[in-house]
Amino acid sequence: MERLPLKSKVLNENQIIAEQLRESYREHGILCLNLISSPGSGKTALLERTLASLDPATRVCVLTGDIQTDNDARRLAQYGFPVQQITTGGTCHLDGRMIERHLAEWNLDDIDLLFIENVGNLVCPSSYDLGEASKIVLLSVTEGDDKPLKYPSIFFKSDLFLLTKIDLLPYVPFSAEQVEENARKVHPGMEILRTSSTTEGGLEAWLTWLKQRMKLAQQGALAAAGK
Amino acid sequence: MHELSIAESILKGIRTELLRYPGARPTKVGVRIGELAAVDVDSLTFCFEAVLKGTEWESLQLDARVCKQVRSCADCGAEFEVVDYNAECPKCASSNTTLKSGDELDFDYLEVDTDGTPAAQV
C-alpha cells in the first residue's frame, strides 16, 4: 500500500473551463455577472427591470438557467436583447461547460454585458466558477434575516448583495439592518444594495453599480489590447 | 445536491491520476473540504458510494476532511481560526481580515495497492 500526495482541485475540469471563459470575457471587454439566489428571490424580476431601464444601445445578453421550462427566457426576451435558456434537466447548478456551449451561439465581439441567471439555489451554484467577474447574491425580505449565517459560502463569494423586495418590509418580521450585519460578519465590507423590482426602489443605485463595472471591464480590455 | 456531481468529479480525478500509475489499485482517496466550500460531507460520502456501485472500485474509501476557515488580520497580523463564521479578528476586533484557507475543495492523497511493488510513475 502506498500513499500518493495529490495537489489538484476536485473541480479541476470546471476550473480550467472557467479560466478560459474569464480570459475570453477579458479579451472582449465583456462584464459577466453570475446572479445567484433561492428560487423566487427575484432574479428574473430584477433582470426584467434592468433590461427595461438600460440604454437600448447597450449590448446585453442573458443566459438563464432552470431545471425545467423556458419561462424565464420568454419573460426576458420581450426586452429585445438576446436571451438563451439553459435547461439543466435536474442539475441544481450551472457549470462552465454549459456556459461555453451556449456562448458558442453568439459573437462575443457583440457583447458588453453578460448576465448569467443561475438555477434558483443558494448552495450548489456557489461551488462552480463560471468565469464571471462577480457573483451577485440576491435575498428577499421574505426569506429571513439570518440567511447569510446559514448559507455563508455564497455570501462570502459574492461581491454584491442585493436585498430584494424591500417594498414588503412593512409586512414581514425582517430586519434589513440585521441581515446586513449578518452578511458583513461573513464577508467584511460587503457591498449591499436594497432594491424593489415592484416600486423600482434602489434601481438607480444598482444601475450605477452596473455601469461602473462595465466601464472597468472595457478599460481592462483596452489595457490588455494595448500591451 | 451538487454532491453527486462532485462525487463524479472525484472519481474522474482518480482515473486521471491513475493514468500515471499503471497497475495501481486505489483503496482510499483523501479530499480536503473547506467549511466555505458549501459541500456536505455526509451527502458527499453517500453519493460517492452510489457512483462506485457497479464499478471495479466498490470498496474504495473516501476520507473527506473538513477544514476550518483561517483568516489573517491586516491590522495586527494575527492569524486565527474562524468561529461561527465571524470574520472579525479576535485579538484587535478589526474587520480588515482576509481568508487564508477554508474555501478549498482539493484532493489530498490517493492510497493505492500495488501488490508490493512501488507505484511506477510514467
Verbal overview:
The complex is a heterodimer of chains A (227) and B (122). Chain A has helices spanning 12-28, 43-53, 71-77, 96-103, 147-150, 152-157, 176-186, 203-226; strands at 2-5, 31-36, 60-66, 83-87, 113-117, 134-140, 160-164, 191-194. Chain A has 227 residues and is an alpha/beta fold. In chain A, strands 4-3-5-2-6-7-8 form a seven-stranded parallel sheet, sandwiched between helices. The termini of chain A are far apart. Chain B has 122 residues and is an alpha+beta fold. Helix content of chain B is 23%, strand content 31%. Chain B is built from two helices and six strands. Chain B has helices at 3-18, 41-52; strands spanning 25-34, 61-67, 70-73, 79-81, 97-101, 105-113. A three-stranded mixed sheet of chain B has the order 2-1-6, with helices on one face. In chain B, strands 4-3-5 form a three-stranded antiparallel sheet, with no helix packed on it. In chain B, helix 1 packs across helix 2. The relative contact order of chain B is 0.26. Chain A binds chain B through residues 1-14, 91-93, 95, 123-124, 126-128, 149, 151-154, 156-157, 184-189, and chain B through 1-2, 5-6, 9-10, 12-13, 17, 21, 24, 27, 30-31, 36-39, 84-88, 95-97, 99, 103-114, 118-119. Strand 1 (2-5) of chain A pairs antiparallel with strand 6 (105-113) of chain B, so a sheet runs across the interface.
Rg from alpha-carbon coordinates of chain B: 18 Å
- Strand share of the residues of chain A? 15-25%
Element-level helix/strand string of chain B: HEHEEEEE
Strand content of chain B: 25-35%
Oligomer: heterodimer
Shape, per Cα inertia axes of chain A:
globular
Beta strands of chain B, count: 6
Summed up, the helix count of chain B is 2
The biggest beta sheet of chain A is recorded as:
7 strands, parallel
Helix content of chain A: 25-40%
N-C termini distance of chain A: 52 Å
Termini gap of chain B:
36 Å
Order of helices and strands of chain A: EHEHEHEHEEHHEHEH
Amount of helix of chain B: 10-25%
Arithmetic mean of pLDDT of chain B: 91
